[in-house]
Amino acid sequence: AQRVTQPEKLLSVFKGAPVELKCNYSYSGSPELFWYVQYSRQRLQLLLRHISRESIKGFTADLNKGETSFHLKKPFAQEEDSAMYYCALSGRGRNFNKFYFGSGTKLNVKP
Amino acid sequence: DVKVTQSSRYLVKRTGEKVFLECVQDMDHENMFWYRQDPGLGLRLIYFSYDVKMKEKGDIPEGYSVSREKKERFSLILESASTNQTSMYLCASGTGQNTEAFFGQGTRLTVV
């Protein structure tokens, strides 16, 4: 069965500190992995996806198939990174965009 | 600028009422989705549609139905609203062709 687990409901760090938001998944197949972000009073938006292998706003995420993880990292957190972060997976082909979301991690970056 | 628009930001309805949540996208996307967002549970898929007049159940379809008469519009229907359907509802659309999905701003529904 497909499942996305984000173990931390809240993560508080100081500005300039490294950040790692954890995500583990289970899926019977080859999933697509994503991180979505929701800033206060804004709509949910894509942050990054594993197939792009790019860095967005200083964030990176590496897919580890052996550990079935897709942790989100940033070396130096900024106050504007404070938001709700959701890890998500989808299938491929017809099931692309049909997301399974984790429960979310609220990141609070303190000044 | 891509747009997924939900007809209401806030809605208050009484128990037992029939409720319609409307979603319109202007990107000619084939796929459209309805999720509900609850604290501690994340987003859960209610229904989705791959094409006009086509629909499939998601993970939590009980108490809901949907309608997709036109490609750009996907409606979520609560046949008889109950207090446990109080939630934030998010609509999304995508091409299903290896591109990102876009979300609406959400409708906060309160059933009293």
What's this entry about, in short?
The complex is a heterodimer of chains A (111) and B (112). Chain A is mainly β. Chain A is built from no helices and 11 strands.
Question: Total number of β-strand segments of chain A?
Answer: 11
Percent range for β-strand residues of chain B? over 45%
CATH homologous superfamily annotation of chain B: Immunoglobulins
Q: What is the terminal separation of chain B in angstroms? A: 36 Å
Please write the CATH class name of chain A: Mainly Beta
Helix content of chain B: under 10%
Rg of chain B, please? 13 Å
Polypeptide structure, described:
Chain A is an all-beta fold and 111 residues long. Chain A is built from no helices and eleven strands. In chain A, the strands form three sheets. In chain A, strands 2, 5, 6, 9, 10 and 11 form a six-stranded mixed beta sheet that branches. Chain A has a three-stranded antiparallel beta sheet with strand order 3-8-7, with no helix packed on it. In chain A, β5 and β6 (45-49) form a beta hairpin. In chain A, 35% of the residues are buried. The mean pLDDT of chain A is 90. With 112 residues, chain B is an all-beta fold. Chain B has one domain: Immunoglobulin-like (Sandwich), CATH 2.60.40. Chain B has strands at residues 4-6, 10-13, 19-25, 31-38, 42-49, 56-57, 64-70, 73-78, 87-94, 102-103, 107-111. In chain B, a hairpin with a 3-residue loop joins β4 and β5 (42-49). Chain B is globular. At the A-B interface, β6 and β10 of A face β4, β5 and β9 of B.
List the SSEs and their pairings.
The complex is a heterodimer of chains A (111) and B (112).
Chain A: E1 3-5, E2 10-14, E3 19-21, E4 24-26, E5 32-38, E6 45-49, E7 60-61, E8 72-74, E9 83-90, E10 99-101, E11 105-110
Parallel strand pairs in A: 2-11
Antiparallel strand pairs in A: 1-4, 3-8, 5-6, 5-9, 7-8, 9-10, 9-11
Chain B: E1 4-6, E2 10-13, E3 19-25, E4 31-38, E5 42-49, E6 56-57, E7 64-70, E8 73-78, E9 87-94, E10 102-103, E11 107-111
Parallel strand pairs in B: 2-11
Antiparallel strand pairs in B: 1-3, 3-8, 4-5, 4-9, 5-6, 7-8, 9-10, 9-11
